[in-house]
Each structure stands twice: as structure tokens, then as C-alpha cells.
Design brief:
- Helices cover 19% and strands 32% of the residues.
- The strands form 10 sheets. It has a 6-stranded mixed beta sheet, with helices on both faces. Strands 7-17-10-15-14-13 form a 6-stranded antiparallel beta sheet, with helices on one face.
- The protein has 927 residues and is an alpha+beta fold.
- Strand 5 (224-231), helix 9 (242-249) and strand 6 form a beta-alpha-beta unit.
- The chain contains 12 helices and 46 strands.
- The longest helix is centred in the C-terminal third of the chain and has 30 residues, at 665-694.
Length: 927
Amino acid sequence: MADRGMGGPAVKKLAILVAVLLGCLVLTPAASAQPRETAIADFGGCLASQREGDLLLMIDESGSLQQSDPDAARVSAANYLLEQLQSFGDSAGVALDVAVAGFSADFTVHAPWTRLDGTTLSTLQSEVGEFRSRTAGLDTDYWTALDGARSTLSEHASGGPASCQAIAWFSDGKLDFTARDGEKPYAPGVPLTTDESVQQVVAAARESICRPAGVADQLRSSGIATFAVGLASGTAEAADFDLMRSIATGEPAAGQACGARTVPTPGDFYLAQNIDDLLFAFDAFSSPGQAPLETEAGVCALEVCEAGQHRFVLDDSIGAVTVLGFADAEGLVPTLVSPSGTELPMPFSTTAVTSGIGDVSVDHRWLSDRSVSFTMNKPDADSDDWQGMWALVFVDEDGSDPAARSKSNIHISGNLFPAWLGQDVTAIHSGEVTSAVQLGIVDSDRVEIDPSDLLGSAYLSVSLTDSAQVDHELASGIPKSAIAAPVELDFTTVAPGEATLRLVLEVTTADATNSWGGTIAPGTDLAPQYVDVPITVAPPIGYPTLPNRIDLGTIEGAGTFPGEISIGGPGCVWVDPAGSVRIDAAPDGVGDIALTTGGAGTADSCLTVEEGASAALPLELTVPEAGNGALNGSVRLMMSPAGEPDRAMPVDVPFTAELLKPLDSGRFWSVFLLVFLLGIAIPCALLYLRKWQTTRIPAEMLRAQRFAVTVSDRGLLRDGQPFVLHDNDLTEIVRGLDKPARRLSVDGAELEARTGGSPVGSGYVLVRAPGLLGASDATPATDRRSGDARLPLAVHNHWVLLHDPEGPADQAQLLLLVGGGASQERIKRLVDDAGRRAAGAIAELRRRSDNADNGTSSPTGTPVPVPAQQAAAFDPFGMPNSSAAPTFGAPAPFGGNTGFGGVPDLNPGPAAPAPGQSFDPFRPPGS
């Protein structure tokens, strides 16, 4: 039969890709096959651990889509992806933020970051629907798209440095440009006026993306996964996507590699030719970390038969099943067969249909003329209708297509996750064996379950990738009968520093049996469930402590910028002379960047730090030329116990920075004045007016309470005990939010919405409490003029720390602002975050007060000029017993934190004392 719409084998491949994408998010059934460790699996492992992440949906807007995708199959497939991601997030307990962007000659964010759930799904789908008419772009500019995506994700980073982030990238063609006047920033001096110059720009874009440390490596070294879908329809051919494939996967294409960082696998690529291909392509990453069971079979003529069955076996540990099925002929009837043999035909329909078999509900809908999706949910009550062998069959009712083929992606959701129980109280040191580690299995709410309750088999394995990127297998194939028993993990050969602990759970459902207990079919092997836990491996006892990561902030312009690394005693630290600095990513045209340390170049001249003390190792960053983009790399340090250089060990400490070209002020002001005089004053005024009208605290239920706390090395204390919430806490609902508000009174504090100086962007909220300074969990944490805490307009689910700088250094007040629908787990994470950052926040507030006494700033709201020598960046994660975070420049413009790029504090003075013992950056959380 003839294909409809886009038709052809390409669409079928794309449909397969969508199914594969959905499969990543759910557990794989039946056929036992060795799982592939893909970028989707890594992304899923991160989400399972962090329980939140970011996905940027980036869609081509070039004019060629008018021919390659006239029916907007990309829109249907992308909206299907959003539906499946929302279902995955709900069932797996993962909070996913999604933004939608388009690209052609430019990169534009059309839908800002939005938490994907049942209430926002339709809004995001409506924005995706607008891409049906976004088909007039001049170029297919990969460079602009990828650089814009990197910047957008970097600015958001919902989970902080350990964020789980990915791009879902769709394009219908190769890197290409339309000849016209103008030029590109990565090809200065090359106008886009002729076909020959266009090819020069193409070559420049490819070079900038694929060179070592280029745009591709900037994405990879920032931990951003790339899932790319190429639509080879219309005039496009498979070879046109060689570069796109290489960017996503790191694999050489047509003999050319793209980027130097290829481990771990940076992403996945899917080639599609029609709507069905697109569906399966997007389905492939719709359930990160839970791959689907992919099967192929024939079809059944006239009635259900054995040869055409796509089988899967369920038991009571499975909560739901989602299936994407496809047949390469039209007019076939997909039929679901239950363990009892009952058949449920699902004939073609233009609307969604709800039906069922016995107590099992089945919702199905047709996504194209040949692809159908259905979801089965386990009955709430005890039922015999769920457990056993199921099958999907495509039936050719008139026997006209006996040679047709069918395929399916079957997502079986057990939502069982491996876990390291009691991780927060387990100390991990390099060179030691950690005994009595308690592993376990938890559900989507992270509630522990008894492994013996699983009806089938289960095996748990543990591995670790250390700071030197060396893999270590720590435990393998622990059966469910032994999962609850303590195990030993051997860290004797593990390098200290940042590491990723991977837990893998492999589950097989119970066999399908008949009434007398005989086996009908073996159980289904679910896709291995990965959980990637970021941990810090501390050095052996007696060695100094180093920071996990050096965040250099924003570096504006070119030059040499001073800084420092805080070292905690006891021990000795020096720079490895054999190869101290590695640059993983840097923008175009910045020259040979160098990061050097002052002194401490050998064991004899090492920086020695006494027990309980801290010291600073000076740094100098040299940027020959200004540029825009990410700077990522690592510096190798050597450390040893004091007086024992023969026991030295290397540690690679990562560093990161955002490089920024300074504004050409002369050109800016001349252009600004010209444009202003031509009539920009009125639009600016309208922008300010519109911003003032929208600068309000959202009208959503808010609960708030203020707690007196003590800051200690154990975190926050309440009445001398670790901070916990009582049943009668956070019961008061803040009045005045029946509509958006500009001012609120919250338990003795005043919240005031401010517009800010810029006519664009968002406003913010100041938190005022008489006689107290404040810091929050937002960025910036404190208003630099008034010393009050600063929050975004959406103040819900944030914390504020209020402190009297004239009072005791360990006393503060914690103000919790909790949304009406916040879960207990969300509130706990809020409190834990405040506990981790409180010491650094108080140290910074007291430093502000000290500077105010010296006439350099004013906590009362009166701005006082701040000399560059005394400006310092606020680091809420700073070591309490060390000096403030590395000072890398003068005050940042527009009120932001100080970044790399100015004169350091030449007379820093003593650091604020810690309430308890010195901060250990390698100590496990909560210990």
C-alpha cells in the first residue's frame, strides 16, 4: 500500500528512534541481551540519583522543512516525547525542567524553563505546536544552536554543579548557510555573499565545533548529553548528517572526528525518514535509564498466531507497561492478548480509546497510519488478570499483506532503584576498604523495599569511576538474597577527589506458569536500572584536603588574573611538574590559556599546612585574548603527609569558568545614542512599565516559618539537636497571595518585589528583617547595596538565613518559604541545602559587616564605593576556617558576584572562624 503524508522507510526509522527513546526511561522486558551503556543510560543514572534534571528541546526552523516535513511530523513526535517524559517523571519520582528553543540563523528560546508535570504539559506542547509554522529560517547553523544551548543550560543548572542536563536536538539537514550580506562570529572577515564564501564559513563552523576544546568539547566537559535526531527526507541524504552524528556521539564520521572528549559516550544519534521513524527515535530517550524491549516479528493472517507475537511476561512487581508498535503495512489491527488468551483488538481510530481486559485498563491511540501506542496499568485490587505472559500481535484481517513485518518498543515500569543506604554517614577514604556498606532497593518514592518481596530474580552491582577517570569494579552480581547484607567496598586503588559511584540493578520478572505450576514462558529481563551517585573520595588519613572543584566564575576580557586554592591541613601540597594543567574546553581565539601557581613547584618547596589549619596556594590565570564561552579543565596537584614526600599521590582538581568579551563601550554608546534618538526611548519606557506590572510575587499558596538555629560542623542545630521539622511546623499560610503581590509580611520579615535597573529580564524580591543581614539560596544570595537577602519573584521553595553580625558567629535565623504542594522530600532537600551552605553564608555576611565598619560598604542600604583591592566574591560553599573564596577580580557589572578579572585583596585580614571543626571538602554529606 502507498504511504500517506511523508511516508517511506525514513519515517519508519524515525518512529523506531522515538520508541528507543521511550525505552531508555523504562525497564526493558523479555529477551535477555547484554545492555549497552549509552549516553541515555548515563543521563538516566544521573536522574535516578539526583531526582531532577534539565532537558532542552532544540528544533530546526530552516526553510527546507517546508519540503522535508510538510505535515510537521517533528511536532507530533516531539509532543509524544513530552508526554512520555512527563509520565516517566511521575512514575520514577524525577523532576524534569524543560525549555523549548528553535534555531536557524539564530538561536531563540521560545519556552523558558518549565517544570514538566501534568499541569504544564499542555503549555509546552502548545509551544512545540508553533513550530508547524516556524519554517522560514535562512540557515542550518549548528554552531549557533550548540553554543546557544550550552549557554542556556549553563545559566539554568537546576541541580547546581552536579546537574543532569541534556539536549534533544532535531534537524532536517546538514550545516549550511544562505548566501547574503553579513558574517558569522566564528568566521570574522568572511562575508556570506557568494557560494564560495559560504563554504568557507561552513568550514570555519566545523573547525570551531570540532577542534579539541571546541564547542563540542565545551558541551561534553560541562556534562551535557546530546541526543540528536536527523530527518533524512526531501532532498536530504543520510551522509548529510555525518557531522551531526559525530557531534552527538563523538564517533568519527566520513573519516573526521569531532572533539577530543569521547569518554564517556557524549550522546546518541538517530536517523529518521518519516513520522514512524521520528516516533521511535524520540521514544528512544523518553525514559532515560530504562531501555525498552525492542522486538521484531511478522504479522498474522486472518487471526492471532504464534509467529507474529511480541511477548512479555509480567508479575506483581510491575506497575505499568507502555508499548509503541508499528507495522509496515496499513490496515492491520494490533491485538493485545492476555495471559488467559483473551484478545483486545485496537483498530485504527483518530481519537484516544480507553478499554480493558478483565481488571486491566488499556488506553490506546494511533500516532500515524501505522504506529499505535498503548498503556496498561496494574489493577489496584488483587487480581489474577495481570501476572503472566502477554503478547502484541498485528493481524492482517483480509490476508492481503502476508509478508508484512512488525516491531515494538515495550516499556515495562517496575520503578525499582538500587540504593546505597546510609551513604551520608559512611566515610570514604582512598587507600582503604570501607566495611559494612549497606546496599538496598528502593521504590520511586525512595522508600526501601525488601528484596525478598520480588517474585523474580534481582542482582545488584557496584562500580566506580574515580577522579583520574579509572573504572573500578567494587561488587558484582549480588543476588537478591544477599542484597540486604553489609558488603565491603575496596578503595585501596581509587584516586581521591570527585568520583561517580554506579549502582546497577538487574531484575527478571517471575516465569509465567500454568495452573499446575509448569513454566509457560521464562520471565522478562528488565533493562538494568542505573543510579550514578556523585561522591567525594577523601585522601588517606594524614593527607591534606583539597577543594572538589575550582569555580573561577565569569572572566571578562584578556589578561592575567590572580586567585588561590584553599588547602586544609595537615600535609604538604605542590604542583606536579610533569603536566600540571589540562584544558578540556575553551572558546575560539583566546590563545594559549595558562593556569599557573605561585611557588610550590617541587616537593622541597611544597606548601605545608598544619593539623587544623588552612592555607592558600596562589593561582594566576592568563587569557591572551578575550572570548565568549566555557573554559573547563583540571590542574594536577601532588600531596603527601607532612615530611613524607615519598608517599606523594597526584590529584586532578577540575576547574571551570565562563569567559566573556568585554563590551566595546565606545561603539556601544555611539550606537545606543543613535538608536535612542531614533525612537527607542518610548519602547524602553514601555518595557519598564510592562516589567513593573509583572514584578510581583506569584499568587500561589505559600507556607512560611522562621526558626532560631545554631550553625555547627554537624550542620544546622535546633534546640541543640540536628535540625528537623515537627508536625506543627510550616502550618501557617502566608496571607495576601490571593492575587500577585508586591509586598508580603512573613513571620516578622518583609518581602518586597523590586523591578531592577534593566528594562528586560526578571525582577527580584528583597527580604528585610530589622537589624539583620540576610543570604538566600539564590544567585546572587545577598543584595550588594542593602545587605538584605535576595530571592527570585517565585519565592516558593527557597530558604533565607538571617544573621546579626554584631551577635555570636554561630547564631542565625532560618526562614523557610515552602510552596503549598511541596513534598516532604522537597522540604528536606531545602533544609539540607541550608545546612550545607550556612557556615559560608554567615562568614560572608560578617565580612560585609566588617567592611561596612571600615567604610567600604553599608549593610543599611547606603551605597559606599568599594575599592577593587577589597572586593570579593561570595562563595556559599566556602571553607569556614579559610579565607573567602578565591578573589578573581573587581565587582561584577549589574550587581552580580565578583568574577575572575580584577585586582585581588592585597590585605585580606583574618578569615571568619568556624563554629566547630574545620571544613573538610572530602567529608561525606552529613558526617
